[in-house]
Structure formats: structure tokens, C-alpha cells
């Protein structure tokens, strides 16, 4: 959702800025040419007369209102769901709030997992709920490597003052290397 919000924010900003520039152009054109009956870019008098003939009970008015309400609700939902996914950490005092990012937790876990010789490579993704480790082992390490990696991750999570302990998922793949 944050990606969608990062795309929508500049687009909406450009739309508002473009509308503002268009309004300034129309106002300046109306001041410079007060005798003209048409807008510079937008046909304001035609729009005004057609909107003057439209009543609140006409079908297009209700459709446009419903469409704008749905669009507004979608934008509000995108904004609410795009919150930052921080991980709560127990602070030194109850009145102090401490958080860390999932990226920092993933880096800590990745360093711990890669610190041994039996792991060739590892990729880690972390959130407040789950830590996923995909490790690559040298030359058919077997299920004992999965238990070893899970143990290292569990030790690290025990050392960290996390407010809520995330679940751990470990997958191990073989990697051919020197024998």
C-alpha cells in the first residue's frame, strides 16, 4: 500500500498544481481581455450555462456524487492502510516508546545466520509478526542445518528486547560448492 500511496501522492499533487496554474491563466486572461466571452483554455461560460440547467435530482449528479464518495473512501483507506510497519521494542522505562524498522531486524538476523561456515548465503525478510529466513547451504547440509539456523535466530530474538516475539520460518536450499 505504501507503494500505491507513493505513486498517488505526486499524481494528485500534479493534478492540483495543474488546476491551480489553469485557474491563474484563466483569471489573468479575464483581466487582460475583459470584453471576451470565452475562457482562454476552458470554456467557462458554456460550463456555467449547462450546470445552471442541471438540478440536484438529475441522474448524472447522483452518479458523480457516488463516484466521488467511493474515490474519497478508497483514498482514505489507502492512506490508513499504508502506515509504517514498525516493530515495538521494550524501552528502558515504561513511558518511553521505542521502535525499530523491519529492515534493521532482518539485517541483524541475516548477520547472525551468515556468521557460520555452513551457510553459504541467506536472505531474510522480517515484519512484526514473522521472520522468514531462506538459507543456502554448502553441499547437502540436511535438516540439521535448518535446526541450527532456527536455533541461531531464536537465540538472537531472545537477546533482543522485542515487545512481541515474531514467528520464525526457515527454509534451506543446497548450493554446490567446493568439496
TrEMBL record:
User: Where is each DUF6286 domain found?
Assistant: 70-173
Q: Does the keyword Membrane apply?
A: yes
Q: Tell me the keywords, alphabetical order.
A: Membrane, Transmembrane, Transmembrane helix
Membrane-crossing residues? Answer: 61-82
Q: Name one Pfam family in it.
A: DUF6286
What's the name of the protein? Answer: DUF6286 domain-containing protein
Q: Which organism is it from?
A: Pseudonocardia kunmingensis
**Upper lineage ranks?**
Bacteria, Bacillati, Actinomycetota, Actinomycetes, Pseudonocardiales
Amino acid at each position: 500500500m505504501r507503494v500505491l500511496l507513493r505513486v498517488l501522492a505526486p499524481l494528485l499533487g500534479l493534478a492540483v498544481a495543474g488546476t491551480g496554474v489553469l485557474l491563474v491563466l484563466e483569471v489573468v486572461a479575464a483581466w487582460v481581455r475583459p470584453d471576451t466571452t470565452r475562457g482562454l483554455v476552458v470554456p467557462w461560460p458554456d460550463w456555467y450555462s449547462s450546470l445552471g440547467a442541471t438540478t440536484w435530482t438529475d441522474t448524472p449528479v447522483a452518479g458523480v456524487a457516488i463516484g466521488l464518495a467511493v474515490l474519497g473512501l478508497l483514498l482514505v483507506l489507502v492512506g490508513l492502510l499504508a502506515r509504517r510497519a514498525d516493530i515495538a521494542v521494550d524501552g528502558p522505562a515504561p513511558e518511553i516508546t521505542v521502535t525499530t524498522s523491519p529492515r534493521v531486524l532482518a539485517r541483524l538476523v541475516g548477520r547472525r545466520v551468515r556468521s557460520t561456515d555452513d551457510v553459504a548465503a541467506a536472505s531474510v525478510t522480517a515484519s512484526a509478526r514473522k521472520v522468514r529466513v531462506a538459507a543456502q547451504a554448502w553441499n547437502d547440509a540436511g535438516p540439521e542445518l535448518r535446526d541450527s539456523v532456527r536455533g541461531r535466530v531464536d537465540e538472537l530474538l531472545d537477546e533482543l528486547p522485542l515487545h512481541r516475539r515474531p514467528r520464525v520460518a526457515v527454509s534451506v536450499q543446497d548450493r554446490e560448492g567446493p568439496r
